[in-house]
Structures are given as structure tokens and as C-alpha cells.
Amino acid sequence: MKKETMDMSKTKDENIVVEPQQETLAGKSGFFDKYGVYLIMGGLIFYVILLAIGTFAEIFKIQSILDWWIWSPPGR
């Protein structure tokens, strides 16, 4: 019985596998892997806010907002 427990502890140490870290295209720390979700969510929130402001300005005919560069037609 004692011999079996010794063998089990031996196999525990042998089964440990350490995989090397892979470098990503963004570098060692993987900036996009780490913050990509936050950047995408921030962009989507920014887009929705701009969409809401533009819709509000169009409905209520607020010309000062409609004159912003983002809603002005090209060449204006």
C-alpha cells in the first residue's frame, strides 16, 4: 500500500506539461487580445451615441447640430 502512494506521487510530477507562450501579431502582451473587446464595445457605443444625436437633430430640425462636419454632405 505504501509503495502505491509513492508511485502515484511520482506520476503526478511526470504528467505536468508546460506549454511555451506563443507570440501574437500584436506583440508579446497581445494588446488586441487583452483590450480588443473593450475597443470594439467603445466604438459601438460611440456610434450609437452619434446615431442618436443625428436622429434627434433631424427629427426636431436642429440646424446647429446638422451643420456638424459628420452630417454635412461632401463638398459643403
The largest sheet, given as strand count, sense and whether it forms a barrel, is: none
Helical content stands at 55-70%
Proportion of β residues?
under 5%
Radius of gyration: 29 Å
State the total count of DSSP E strands. Answer: 0
Q: How would you sum up the global shape?
A: rod-shaped
What is the average of the pLDDT values? 79
What gap, in angstroms, lies between the N and C termini?
Answer: 89 Å
**Sequence of secondary-structure elements:** HHH
Q: Strand pairing plus helix content: what structural class? A: mainly alpha
Low-confidence stretches: none
Total of helices: 3
Folded structure, characterized:
This protein has 76 residues and is mainly α. The protein has a domain of 37 residues. The protein is built from 3 helices and no strands.
Topology, please?
Blueprint: H1 2-14, H2 31-59, H3 63-66
Essential attributes:
76 residues; mainly alpha
Put the structure in a nutshell.
The protein has 76 residues and is mainly alpha-helical. The protein has helices at 2-14, 31-59, 63-66.
